[in-house]
Amino acid sequence: MLRAAEDAGLDAVGFADHCNASSREEARERTYELGFNLDQTYPRRRAAIDSLREEFDLRIFDAVEMDYDPRDETDIRAFLDDAGFDYAVGSVHRLEGTNVHTEGFFAAKSEAEQQAYVDDYFDKVVSLVDSELFEIAAHVDLVERNPALRGYATADHYERVASAFERSRTVPEINAGRVLREYGEVHPSPPLLELLLERDVGFTVGTDSHRPRELRERLPVLLDYFEEYEIDPVRLFD
Question: Taking every annotated instance into account, which residue ranges of this chain make up the domain PHP (predicted)?
Protein backbone atom coordinates (compact mmCIF):
# COMPACT_ATOMS: atom_id res chain seq x y z
CA MET A 1 0.00 0.00 0.00
CA LEU A 2 2.82 2.41 0.80
CA ARG A 3 4.56 1.64 -2.49
CA ALA A 4 1.29 2.26 -4.33
CA ALA A 5 0.81 5.59 -2.52
CA GLU A 6 4.37 6.64 -3.26
CA ASP A 7 4.07 5.64 -6.93
CA ALA A 8 0.84 7.65 -7.18
CA GLY A 9 2.69 10.78 -6.07
CA LEU A 10 0.91 11.21 -2.75
CA ASP A 11 2.51 13.28 -0.01
CA ALA A 12 0.74 11.38 2.76
CA VAL A 13 -1.44 8.34 3.36
CA GLY A 14 -3.53 7.16 6.28
CA PHE A 15 -4.23 3.59 7.32
CA ALA A 16 -7.74 3.39 8.77
CA ASP A 17 -8.55 -0.26 9.36
CA HIS A 18 -12.05 -1.22 10.48
CA CYS A 19 -12.66 -1.38 14.20
CA ASN A 20 -15.58 -1.90 16.58
CA ALA A 21 -15.31 -0.86 20.21
CA SER A 22 -18.85 -1.73 21.30
CA SER A 23 -19.29 -3.67 24.54
CA ARG A 24 -22.66 -5.02 23.36
CA GLU A 25 -22.58 -8.81 23.08
CA GLU A 26 -24.10 -8.89 19.60
CA ALA A 27 -21.51 -6.44 18.28
CA ARG A 28 -18.61 -8.24 19.95
CA GLU A 29 -19.61 -11.61 18.51
CA ARG A 30 -19.85 -10.14 15.02
CA THR A 31 -16.46 -8.47 15.38
CA TYR A 32 -14.80 -11.72 16.39
CA GLU A 33 -16.46 -13.60 13.53
CA LEU A 34 -15.18 -11.07 10.99
CA GLY A 35 -11.74 -10.83 12.55
CA PHE A 36 -11.97 -7.06 13.04
CA ASN A 37 -9.83 -6.99 16.17
CA LEU A 38 -7.97 -3.71 15.78
CA ASP A 39 -9.27 -2.64 19.18
CA GLN A 40 -6.91 -5.29 20.59
CA THR A 41 -4.09 -5.32 18.02
CA TYR A 42 -3.57 -1.63 17.15
CA PRO A 43 -0.29 -1.37 19.18
CA ARG A 44 1.29 -4.02 16.92
CA ARG A 45 0.04 -2.28 13.78
CA ARG A 46 1.35 1.03 15.12
CA ALA A 47 4.77 -0.52 15.66
CA ALA A 48 4.71 -1.84 12.09
CA ILE A 49 3.81 1.61 10.74
CA ASP A 50 6.60 3.20 12.77
CA SER A 51 9.10 0.71 11.42
CA LEU A 52 8.30 1.76 7.82
CA ARG A 53 8.35 5.53 8.19
CA GLU A 54 12.02 5.89 7.19
CA GLU A 55 11.65 3.65 4.12
CA PHE A 56 9.13 5.78 2.25
CA ASP A 57 9.01 9.41 1.21
CA LEU A 58 5.53 9.76 2.67
CA ARG A 59 3.87 11.06 5.77
CA ILE A 60 2.10 8.04 7.23
CA PHE A 61 -0.88 8.42 9.53
CA ASP A 62 -1.99 5.83 12.06
CA ALA A 63 -5.78 6.06 11.81
CA VAL A 64 -8.91 4.01 12.40
CA GLU A 65 -12.37 3.57 10.88
CA MET A 66 -14.85 3.02 13.69
CA ASP A 67 -18.23 1.34 13.35
CA TYR A 68 -20.73 3.83 14.74
CA ASP A 69 -23.99 3.17 16.55
CA PRO A 70 -25.46 5.79 18.89
CA ARG A 71 -25.66 3.16 21.63
CA ASP A 72 -21.88 2.79 21.57
CA GLU A 73 -20.79 6.41 21.93
CA THR A 74 -19.42 5.96 25.46
CA ASP A 75 -17.40 2.90 24.42
CA ILE A 76 -16.11 4.60 21.27
CA ARG A 77 -15.07 7.75 23.11
CA ALA A 78 -13.21 5.79 25.78
CA PHE A 79 -11.41 3.67 23.20
CA LEU A 80 -10.36 6.63 21.03
CA ASP A 81 -9.18 8.61 24.04
CA ASP A 82 -7.06 5.67 25.15
CA ALA A 83 -5.71 4.60 21.76
CA GLY A 84 -4.59 8.04 20.56
CA PHE A 85 -4.84 7.57 16.78
CA ASP A 86 -3.75 10.40 14.50
CA TYR A 87 -7.35 10.67 13.35
CA ALA A 88 -10.56 8.66 13.41
CA VAL A 89 -13.08 7.97 10.66
CA GLY A 90 -16.66 7.16 11.65
CA SER A 91 -18.97 5.04 9.51
CA VAL A 92 -22.45 3.53 9.67
CA HIS A 93 -22.37 0.01 8.24
CA ARG A 94 -25.20 -1.86 9.93
CA LEU A 95 -28.98 -1.61 10.12
CA GLU A 96 -30.82 -3.96 12.46
CA GLY A 97 -27.57 -5.90 12.86
CA THR A 98 -27.18 -6.42 9.10
CA ASN A 99 -24.50 -4.96 6.86
CA VAL A 100 -25.88 -2.27 4.56
CA HIS A 101 -24.30 -4.07 1.58
CA THR A 102 -26.36 -7.25 2.11
CA GLU A 103 -28.77 -6.94 -0.81
CA GLY A 104 -30.72 -10.16 -0.20
CA PHE A 105 -31.75 -9.23 3.34
CA PHE A 106 -33.12 -5.82 2.37
CA ALA A 107 -34.57 -6.96 -0.98
CA ALA A 108 -36.85 -9.37 0.90
CA LYS A 109 -38.42 -6.51 2.86
CA SER A 110 -41.48 -4.47 1.91
CA GLU A 111 -41.09 -0.98 0.45
CA ALA A 112 -42.27 0.50 3.75
CA GLU A 113 -39.61 -1.48 5.61
CA GLN A 114 -36.93 -0.47 3.11
CA GLN A 115 -37.87 3.18 3.57
CA ALA A 116 -37.70 2.73 7.34
CA TYR A 117 -34.20 1.27 7.05
CA VAL A 118 -33.06 4.26 5.02
CA ASP A 119 -34.64 6.61 7.56
CA ASP A 120 -32.73 4.77 10.30
CA TYR A 121 -29.51 4.99 8.32
CA PHE A 122 -29.67 8.76 7.96
CA ASP A 123 -30.70 9.15 11.61
CA LYS A 124 -27.48 7.34 12.51
CA VAL A 125 -25.38 9.44 10.12
CA VAL A 126 -26.69 12.67 11.67
CA SER A 127 -26.00 11.28 15.15
CA LEU A 128 -22.48 10.32 14.05
CA VAL A 129 -21.76 13.84 12.85
CA ASP A 130 -23.33 15.45 15.93
CA SER A 131 -21.32 13.19 18.25
CA GLU A 132 -18.08 15.04 17.35
CA LEU A 133 -16.24 11.75 17.95
CA PHE A 134 -14.55 11.67 14.56
CA GLU A 135 -12.47 13.88 12.32
CA ILE A 136 -13.95 12.28 9.18
CA ALA A 137 -17.29 10.72 8.29
CA ALA A 138 -17.08 7.96 5.69
CA HIS A 139 -19.35 7.36 2.66
CA VAL A 140 -22.27 9.29 4.12
CA ASP A 141 -24.90 7.90 1.72
CA LEU A 142 -23.76 4.27 1.78
CA VAL A 143 -27.33 2.99 1.31
CA GLU A 144 -27.08 4.05 -2.35
CA ARG A 145 -24.69 1.16 -2.99
CA ASN A 146 -27.45 -1.35 -2.26
CA PRO A 147 -30.00 -1.68 -5.11
CA ALA A 148 -32.67 -2.69 -2.57
CA LEU A 149 -32.23 0.60 -0.67
CA ARG A 150 -31.28 2.90 -3.53
CA GLY A 151 -33.65 5.74 -4.30
CA TYR A 152 -35.28 5.98 -0.87
CA ALA A 153 -33.14 8.92 0.26
CA THR A 154 -35.16 12.13 0.35
CA ALA A 155 -34.45 15.83 0.19
CA ASP A 156 -35.21 15.96 3.92
CA HIS A 157 -32.55 13.32 4.64
CA TYR A 158 -29.99 15.32 2.70
CA GLU A 159 -30.98 18.60 4.35
CA ARG A 160 -30.52 17.05 7.79
CA VAL A 161 -27.12 15.62 6.87
CA ALA A 162 -25.93 18.90 5.34
CA SER A 163 -27.08 20.88 8.38
CA ALA A 164 -25.26 18.48 10.69
CA PHE A 165 -21.98 18.90 8.81
CA GLU A 166 -22.43 22.66 8.64
CA ARG A 167 -22.44 22.87 12.44
CA SER A 168 -19.80 20.19 13.09
CA ARG A 169 -16.04 19.92 13.02
CA THR A 170 -16.43 16.49 11.40
CA VAL A 171 -15.58 16.50 7.68
CA PRO A 172 -17.17 14.20 5.09
CA GLU A 173 -15.04 12.41 2.55
CA ILE A 174 -15.52 12.03 -1.17
CA ASN A 175 -15.30 8.27 -1.27
CA ALA A 176 -14.37 6.17 -4.31
CA GLY A 177 -15.07 2.77 -2.79
CA ARG A 178 -17.43 1.65 -5.58
CA VAL A 179 -16.62 4.10 -8.36
CA LEU A 180 -15.08 1.40 -10.58
CA ARG A 181 -17.46 -1.37 -9.59
CA GLU A 182 -21.15 -2.10 -10.00
CA TYR A 183 -22.35 1.09 -8.29
CA GLY A 184 -20.13 3.25 -10.47
CA GLU A 185 -20.44 6.44 -8.41
CA VAL A 186 -18.59 8.25 -5.67
CA HIS A 187 -20.10 9.17 -2.32
CA PRO A 188 -21.83 11.47 -1.68
CA SER A 189 -24.10 11.33 -4.72
CA PRO A 190 -24.51 14.60 -6.69
CA PRO A 191 -27.69 15.85 -4.95
CA LEU A 192 -26.13 15.56 -1.50
CA LEU A 193 -22.75 16.79 -2.73
CA GLU A 194 -24.32 19.94 -4.19
CA LEU A 195 -26.18 20.64 -0.96
CA LEU A 196 -22.99 20.26 1.08
CA LEU A 197 -21.12 22.56 -1.26
CA GLU A 198 -23.88 25.16 -0.88
CA ARG A 199 -23.27 25.02 2.88
CA ASP A 200 -19.49 25.50 2.34
CA VAL A 201 -18.78 22.08 3.83
CA GLY A 202 -15.27 20.83 3.06
CA PHE A 203 -14.24 17.35 1.98
CA THR A 204 -11.34 15.00 2.42
CA VAL A 205 -10.16 12.44 -0.16
CA GLY A 206 -11.11 8.82 0.58
CA THR A 207 -9.97 6.06 -1.76
CA ASP A 208 -11.49 3.37 0.51
CA SER A 209 -8.76 1.10 -0.82
CA HIS A 210 -8.35 -2.38 0.59
CA ARG A 211 -5.68 -3.37 -1.95
CA PRO A 212 -2.78 -1.48 -3.58
CA ARG A 213 -4.34 -1.85 -7.04
CA GLU A 214 -7.48 -0.08 -5.82
CA LEU A 215 -5.51 2.92 -4.63
CA ARG A 216 -3.75 3.21 -8.00
CA GLU A 217 -7.02 2.96 -9.95
CA ARG A 218 -9.27 5.11 -7.77
CA LEU A 219 -7.00 8.06 -7.05
CA PRO A 220 -7.07 9.50 -10.60
CA VAL A 221 -10.89 9.32 -10.59
CA LEU A 222 -11.00 11.19 -7.29
CA LEU A 223 -8.58 13.85 -8.46
CA ASP A 224 -10.66 14.44 -11.60
CA TYR A 225 -13.79 14.68 -9.43
CA PHE A 226 -12.27 17.28 -7.12
CA GLU A 227 -11.15 19.26 -10.17
CA GLU A 228 -14.57 19.01 -11.85
CA TYR A 229 -16.32 20.45 -8.78
CA GLU A 230 -13.47 22.87 -8.01
CA ILE A 231 -13.03 21.46 -4.52
CA ASP A 232 -9.84 21.97 -2.54
CA PRO A 233 -9.49 19.03 -0.15
CA VAL A 234 -9.51 19.82 3.53
CA ARG A 235 -6.12 19.25 5.14
CA LEU A 236 -6.47 17.82 8.62
CA PHE A 237 -2.80 18.44 9.34
CA ASP A 238 -0.28 21.18 8.54
Answer: 1-175
